[in-house]
User: Which sequence fits this backbone?
């Protein structure tokens, strides 16, 4: 199966931050196409979801969505497209005030969440709640919201997930 991995960055980061760059290397080594969407200047989560959904619609191959923080919420909200085969999110902004929770109900694709115990921006309890309600895999690491000190673990989980999706 040909797979395109689409990355969605967080609210305050950019399309080629540390985590996305590291994970895109993993994806490329596994012969995946890689796209990282630039959401800078788009504050509204719903507008970001619309942008991602348009990108997915233009791709003819299977898609794996990856997102971090707000990008995790955005990727989850767009995961109902028929081309999407999986979802891998880092410290996703689930159950955050002002975000439309109905957009992330009923996930129908395999998904994994990686979250840091010491996250002071998005409570780890939000990911625990989501993983339980939607029956997904959850990896809790000894890290903070950025998870930049956990890149080796993230890349390992990501590589294993890619192998299962392909």
Assistant:
């Amino acid at each position: 199966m040909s797979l395109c991995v689409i990355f969605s960055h967080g609210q305050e980061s950019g399309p080629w931050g540390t985590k996305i760059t590291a994970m895109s290397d993993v994806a490329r080594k596994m012969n995946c196409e890689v796209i990282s969407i630039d959401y800078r200047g788009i504050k509204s989560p719903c507008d970001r979801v619309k942008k991602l959904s348009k990108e997915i619609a233009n791709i003819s191959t299977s898609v794996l969505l990856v997102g971090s923080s707000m990008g995790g919420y955005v990727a989850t909200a767009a995961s109902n497209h028929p081309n999407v085969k999986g979802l891998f999110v880092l410290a996703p902004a689930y159950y955050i005030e002002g975000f439309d929770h109905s957009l992330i109900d009923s996930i129908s694709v395999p998904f994994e969440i990686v979250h840091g115990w010491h996250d002071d921006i998005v409570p780890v309890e939000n990911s625990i709640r989501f993983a339980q309600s939607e029956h997904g895999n959850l990896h809790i690491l000894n890290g903070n919201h950025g998870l930049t000190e956990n890149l080796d673990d993230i890349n390992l989980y990501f590589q294993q997930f890619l192998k299962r999706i392909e």
